[in-house]
Amino acid sequence: xxxxxxxxxxxxxxxxxxxxxxxxxxxxxxxxxxxxLQWLGKLGFQINPHIEKYRTIDEVWxxxxxxxxxxxxxxxxxxxxxxxxxxxxxxxxxxxVGREPRWAIAFKFPPTQRTTVLKxxxxxxxxxxxxxxxxxxxxxxxxxxxxxxATLHNEEDIKRKDVRIGDTVIVQRAGDVIPQVxxxxxxxxxxxxxxxxxxxxxxxxKTKLVRxxxxxxxxxxxxxxxxxxxxxxxxxxxxxxxxxxxxGEQLTLTLxxxxxxxxxxxxxxxxxxxxxxxxxxxxxxxxxxxxxxxVSRERPLARVLFALGIRHVGSETASLLxxxxxxMEALMEASAGELAAVSTIGPxxxxxxxxxFQEKQNRALIEKLQAGGVLMKTAAPATRDGPLSGQSxxxxxxxxxxxxxxxxxxxxxxxxxxxxxxxxxxxxLVVGQSPGSKLAKAQRYETKILDDAGFMALLREHGVN
Length: 465
Ligand SMILES: [Zn+2]
Known about the structure:
CATH architecture of the largest domain: Beta Barrel
Strand order of the largest sheet: 7-6-5-8-9
Bound molecules: zinc ion
Structural class: alpha/beta
Shape: globular
Oligomer: single chain
């Protein structure tokens, strides 16, 4: 669906069922889930015809079981059945843990397995230089999808499972997970199978690989390795990082091949004219790419930090660092000790961040990004006028989509106030995973309580993501 040209997406025969009501204002909505769906159906939304209501868990269990066989009769693929509590008042009371509501659970079908021949084991190079083996398979249809490749995790895993090239192997696929090789079918072994010989040199740059003590992976340690550069670019533009829509795998490869882009900062020097010279790049697409890159200049510091792909710095850690240091300059000058003093940042992460900024080429990259107009600012400060002005928020527990500082920054950007302690004056308590004692307190005070989904809906309502 993610196409440079939305008219391509529009041509695809996309369809969907509506499974819930996200947000409603004014007027009343039905009190149960089933009635809500029936009501939505009457309004003209497409509702799944197989929704059923049962009184006991035994009946639910029996019904779910029947779908293991019946699913093949559907003209779309399913990987399970969702069981939901019907009473919406109970949804409120049960709440949400992380991304998972307590009022709904998935009955997942067992993964579908098939056997096929393992033609070869190849490797690709990851962002950190890790050498990742994968299986090249005789194409096999698993649950409606043709599988030609499957993950083999690492060398140790191949050894442990004793998977050999030429083996008939069991491959499984479950939901959106990458297909994996479960193991060989030993009875089909002929003796002609070959053991996998891990490469000694990087397939991309031919540098001798190293395997650090105690690690299951080999690494290419050449900082100029083209394969790593590509993966770093891929990570840089990905969602959660700089989120540059339209700069996908193919375009990244082309840009690198044409020498237009060597590192992420080069993206900010790209012009529409340069893009138009590329094959299959139309006026409209080129314009979209340039616009998407431009928008990314304003991504907050936390996103930029994550996008750099510093080892051990996930999005959560990036947020903590951004919030604590406030600017790229301050972070770059921090000693390992200062970094480790930030709460929940351990010595390994601190060391990794510190040594990243000691590297001359990394500092050069950051300067180049700044020169390219990437702002690297922390999110907007408090107290400005907005739709949430005059309302005070307290966040308790872990939210699925944001760290607490990120969520608070969003509230403040809409004019709301944030605090860490709940009082009778608090207007809204936002509740994430493991909320602690504040939830009970808020119930006593009759403070308005928003769960994760409700909070997201509130942000969306005001155009914040
Ligand atoms: Zn390499």
